[in-house]
Each structure stands twice: as structure tokens, then as C-alpha cells.
Design a protein that fits this description.
Blueprint (H helix, E strand, L loop, with lengths): L1 H10 L4 E8 L2 H7 L2 H16 L8 E3 L4 E7 L3 H14 L4 E3 L2 E3 L3 E8 L6 H17 L5 E3 L2 H22 L5 E9 L6 E11 L5 E2 L1 H10 L3 H19 L7 E3 L4 H5 L1 H4 L1
Parallel strand pairs: 6-7, 9-11
Antiparallel strand pairs: 1-3, 1-6, 2-3, 4-5, 8-9, 9-10
Helix pairs in contact: 2-3, 5-6, 6-7
Length: 263
């Protein structure tokens, strides 16, 4: 397996690189087709990647839609060149069973023994680089660094706290209401609902950080319900003073897809 291969590579006394690649938004492919078709597509994708793997190297299938490649004696430029070749394989839409789908890949790379000697630690570092590549816009290669790793740890901490707060009835979430005014006389006609969240230390976390996590974990659905309930309650109170007052609430794609949300 990958761990054994890393131990063997380390035993040679020579350095090298570990590249972990993941398919961007593969869950969407599964939802558009089904899991059986998704697995077949995944096999086709792995064949495309294998065509670019040097003969003396092995491609490892990791969890889900991820692949690992150990590249002995490689430097950053060599791994970048390999990843660019893989990207070119998916520059145009792929076709499966008469249907087209577009694939992009993200990847994280780390070098041994500079970053670490332990296989599990190396894999974790490469995973951190991959996850931050996806969070940074996808379809890119990210190199491990202490800064990248710390950003990854922060994201995991935020995710853990958010899951706990959602289970606790959306604890530490707050709504802010931004007034909407008429263009003629500037009187208030409504408000836009803005979601905010405080971490366990009571510090506000930027929406671009926590909303992405809500969407990735699908907790945006229960949080979205909570937002609607709170917004409707506030709107009802304000309509006592402004009869035609309207409330705007933003919705994510995950909410729209969830049929139970519409109920």
C-alpha cells in the first residue's frame, strides 16, 4: 500500500515527492448519474492518469476519488510537469454512455525527508496541501508548507466546531439584517438576511470561511431552515410597522437540491 511504499522509498536513503490527487466535485458526477456509473467513470479517469505515470512508478488508489503517486528523486518541477500532463488529459469534456462530463483535478505535493520521514505524517501533509488547493479554487497543484498546514488545521477546527453548533440548534450563529431602501425617498422597504458565526472563543469568522464548510458538509440545509425560521419571525414583527416589508434570504445550491428543505 501507500504507507509500505513510502517506507521502502525512505529506506533507500534517497529523497523524493509524494503527490496526492483528487477529482474536483466528484460528488456532483455521482449525483448527475449514479454511484455505479460514478465508479465506472472513476475507473476511466484512473486509466487516463495511469497513461502519464512513468513505468517504474505506481499509482495508488486512496479513499474516495483520490490517488497517490510516490516519485523517488523528484523535485517540485518534475511533479508540476506530471500534474500538467494529467490536467491536459481532462482539458476537454469526457464522454461516458453518450453523456458528457467535465473533470478537473486538484493535487497536493510534499517532499521527503525534508517535510517528514513518517509515512502517515507525509500523507497527512499531502492531504493538507490537496484540501487547501480545492478550497482555493480547485484545478490546481498546491505544495505543502507550514502555512498551508496551519490553514488546513484551522479549517478542520472550524468544521468540528460548526458541526457541534449545528447539532446544538445552530448555537453561535447570528443573523444580521441589511436594510433595503426605495430609490425615490430612501424609505426602508425590506432587508437582506446575512449569516454570521462566532467560534468557541467568541470571535467572528469570515463568511467565506465558514459558509464553504457548511456547503461541503451539507449542514447548510439545517442551518438554512434555521435562517428561514428566524427571518420569517423578524419579518412578521417588522410588518407591524411597515406593512409591505419584505425579507431577502440567500439560498445555496445544496439547499435547492434538498427536497425536504422545500417542505
Amino acid at each position: 500500500d501507500l504507507g509500505e511504499a513510502l517506507r521502502t522509498a525512505r529506506g533507500t536513503g534517497k529523497g523524493g515527492g509524494l503527490l496526492v490527487m483528487g477529482i474536483d466535485n466528484f460528488r456532483t458526477v455521482n449525483e448527475a448519474f449514479n454511484h455505479e456509473v460514478g465508479d465506472a467513470i472513476l475507473r476511466e479517469i484512473s486509466e487516463c492518469i495511469l497513461q502519464n505515470v512513468p513505468r517504474r512508478l505506481s499509482l495508488y488508489r486512496l479513499d474516495g476519488d483520490e490517488f497517490g503517486l510516490i516519485y523517488p528523486e523528484a523535485d517540485e518541477e518534475m511533479l508540476q510537469e506530471f500534474f500538467i500532463r494529467v490536467q491536459r488529459e481532462f482539458a476537454h469534456p469526457q464522454v461516458y454512455d453518450g453523456r458528457q462530463y467535465l473533470v478537473t483535478m486538484s493535487a497536493g505535493m510534499v517532499f521527503y525527508p525534508q517535510a517528514a520521514r513518517d509515512p502517515l505524517v507525509l500523507h497527512k501533509y499531502a492531504q493538507a496541501a490537496l484540501d487547501t488547493a480545492k478550497a482555493g479554487g480547485k484545478n490546481r497543484l498546491n505544495a505543502f508548507s507550514k502555512e498551508v498546514y496551519n490553514r488546513w488545521l484551522r479549517s478542520l477546527t472550524i468544521q468540528e466546531q460548526i458541526l457541534e453548533d449545528v447539532k446544538a440548534g445552530c448555537r453561535n450563529f447570528e443573523l444580521y439584517f441589511q436594510p433595503q431602501v426605495a430609490g425615490d425617498d430612501q424609505h426602508i422597504v425590506g432587508a437582506e438576511t446575512l449569516l454570521r458565526w462566532k467560534n468557541e472563543k467568541g470571535h467572528m469568522v469570515a463568511p467565506m470561511e465558514f459558509i464553504r464548510i457548511l456547503e461541503e458538509t451539507k449542514t447548510i440545509v439545517p442551518v438554512g431552515r434555521w435562517i428561514f425560521e428566524q427571518a420569517l419571525r423578524v419579518c412578521k414583527e417588522w410588518r407591524k410597522k411597515i406593512p409591505n416589508f419584505r425579507m431577502s434570504v440567500n439560498m445555496s445550491y445544496e439547499q435547492i437540491k434538498d427536497l425536504s428543505f422545500l417542505e
